[in-house]
Amino acid sequence: MVITHHGGQCFKVTLGDLTIVFDPVNKGASLPPARFGADIALVSRNHPDMNGISEVTYGDKVPFPITGPGEYERQGVVVQGFLSKSKYGLGKGESEALNTIYAVELEDMTIVHLGALADTELPKEAREGIDEIDVLFVPVGGDGVLSADDAHKLAVSLEPKIIIPMHWSGIGKPKCLEAFLKAAGTSGEKVEKLTLKKKDLVGRDGSILIVTP
Question: What's the predicted TM-score (pTM) here?
C-alpha cells in the first residue's frame, strides 16, 4: 500500500487500482479541498475539514461512503467504525460532537485512524474490538482534538508498529507537530509518501513517521 497526506486529517491509501481516503477535505474548509477519485471514503467528523466525499467523486470513481460506527466490507476491505467524541469545530451551543474511529484491514495489516478524537482514552468498544495495530493515525493539534502530550500518551499505550501524526498541516495549533515530537523524544522520520508492506513492519515498535503533504 502507498499512503499519501493531503493536509489536515486527509490521507489517501492506494493498493493497485483501489483508492481509500480518510477524512477528505471539502469545499469551504480551513485548507484546500481534496481532488482525486476514491473507491471508499471514510469520514470521522461531519465538518468541512473532513467530510468532502463529493470532492473525491472524480472521473469514473464514485466512493462508497462510510460516515459512522458499524461494520462494513467493500471490495475486500473490512472496516470497523467505533463511536467516540470530538470537540473540533463545534457550533454555537455545542459542547461535543460525534467522532468515528476507524479500524481497516488491508493486506494483512490493521490501520487505525482516530479521526478528530478528543477523548484521551479509547472507548471500551474500540479497545475490545481492535487487536494489534500496525499503523496508527493520531491527531496532535489540540484545539478540539488531542493535545500533543495526550496524543503521545494514547499512541504509546496502543502499541502500534508505526505512528503517523495528523491534524498539524493546515489545521491544529501552531508548532503542534514539534510539541508531539518533543513529547516522544524523537525528531521522527519524514517521508513524502509511505510505501508499506507487512514485512516492512518487522522491527518497528512505535516508529513515528511524518508523511508530509
Answer: 0.97
